[in-house]
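Reopening: structure tokens for the zinc ion complex, inputs below.
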Amino acid sequence: MHPSNLRAILWTSLLLSTAACVADSSGPKRDSADRKAQSARMIPLDMHTHAQPNLCRVRHLSLALALDFTTSTASGTCTLTFERIDPDAPLVLDSKGLRIERVVAVDGSARAFSLGQEHDNLGAPLTIELQPKDRAVVVHYATAPGAEAMQWLAPEQTASGKAPFLFTQGQAILTRTWIPTQDSPGVRVTYDATIEAPANLTAVMSAEQLGRGPDGRFGFRMREAIPPYLIALACGDLEFQGISNRAGVWAEPSVVRDARDELVDTERMIAAAEKLFGPYRWGRYDLLILPPAFPYGGMENPRLTFATPTILAGDKSLVALVAHELAHSWSGNLVTNATWRDFWLNEGFTVYIEQRIMEEVFGVERTSMEQVLSRAELEQEMAGMQPKDQVLHIDLAGRHPDDGFSQVPYEKGALFLRRLEQIYGRPAFDRFLRNYFDRHAFQSITTEEFTHHLQAELIDRLPALGEKLDVHAWLTTPGLLPDAPTSRSALLDRVDTELAALRVGQAAGKLETKGWVTQQWLRFLTNLPRDLSAQRMAELDEAFQFTTSGNCEIACAWLEKCIQTGYSGADQRLEEFVMQVGRRKFLKPLYTALVQAPNGLERAKALYARARPRYHAVSRGTLDKIVGF
Ligand code: BES
Ligand code: ZN
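Re-run output (same inputs, fresh job):
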């Protein structure tokens, strides 16, 4: 049977049942395919891949790439080692924008290949015809200059202004724009790589760093099987400073010392997480501070978290992001969402663990503030979302995984776990989580597999301390459930008192703000009345110097208010900010506020036209829609 027929059957069975796993086939090959598919671990159906890992499944990748900063391309080979489940099936890979030059077997003889029809989100399937003995093939290829996973920065976009910079971002389905592979989080691979880079630059990857070989190439090796979205590469003028014997920071030379000081508590965070959830299984934990164009706050690439420099506030007030990315070393990297529908398994667990780490290292008061702030963000965002997108187990049929990106998988997911903790008690829930990570280590699992595990290991075993939980409702009901846990923060209550005073006319300089920390200022700024006069805004600015704040969270919250109230005193800072910072979380509210302001659309379009070439494809994708580019 032709694989596309099998695929049609798989799709049909998905439509007919909600079964998460498919190891079914029919027709002439049924018997052998069936037996083989069942002997291999069943692989859940991922609608965001062209690959057919139930038939032929990639196990290891070996990359040999040369980076060309003049053409913004990488070229070389990707050797794929695979397991053949159906001996007659070809190897089907994902590819998007790749120029495939040729495909050969390990003995150098050519293999026929074809690129199928390009799909907007998914790219094109790359189908390679195999000979009976093939267990590996070598794909010779080059990336496109506009590969979405790769951002090639001009020297002006770096701290030094002297050397160019490259970084990759694989999550969710961008790895296929720089590596031809089965780009599904259920298809875990080990990898190694050699990277040829300009002599003055250093390459780093989400792997063991083997250093520069005699040929000048950087070598890397990842011995644990990881989902392909975690394969990551960066190259620039980089220096390293250690924090402990297993943690440290990579950054541009002018940034690395401050970065290390800011992130010095990382080792304490690792120790706290290990105490709660079991050993850190990845060897080293390093952080790479990227130039400000990085579109995310952080990305949990194994052994080497990628992070925005906008967390370097100078007072460690934004390091919850490190706790978050570190937490992914358990939830996400060790136990991975099998498909992007199950994204909440990655992020909800991670936010929960992040908060537990923060509580251990920075205390309950700080954590409660962060919980209250993020719940407010969740409620605010959900108010503007379609009900079908307010659920944890989201339906992404026909959509891009990014459409499922919101506070819902993060904060609602974490609230679900906090609810479980509340019902079963912290000691029992901690034991449950530790067991969950041990039992599923280095596996990719679906929401259904999680609920089975939850039922068997917690619900059926332990009497609830309080009332029962409706798991199904938590996964499928839009909005916040009535039993969602709430947090209180006395420190934030104090801010609310001052906000109330401000509302009835108290002068900014007379507010009692002594000793306020970043989270309190954020509460203050996000809850400022929208109708403050320009004069009152100026008075606040004078009293608290928001416009010149070196804390990007504070600056961004302030700039949003400036746009909303029509206060022009921060216009120049706004311009500098959006020209420099590429982090989508900041750009999205700023451009949204601009577009909504009276006569703001023109201004938004003008600013965006100048800044857009500096933004990553991920940020452009979101902002193009907001600004109407
Ligand atoms: N893995 C995510 C980033 C991501 C998600 C990239 C989906 C692509 C697709 C990362 O762990 C994350 O959640 N980052 C947050 C920071 C965190 C503190 C909430 C971010 O970048 O804002
Ligand atoms: Zn995350």
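Confidence is low (pLDDT under 50) at residues 1-40. The pocket of zinc ion (ligand 2) is lined by residues 324, 328, 347, 350 (CB under 6 Å). Marking as resolved unless the reporter disagrees.
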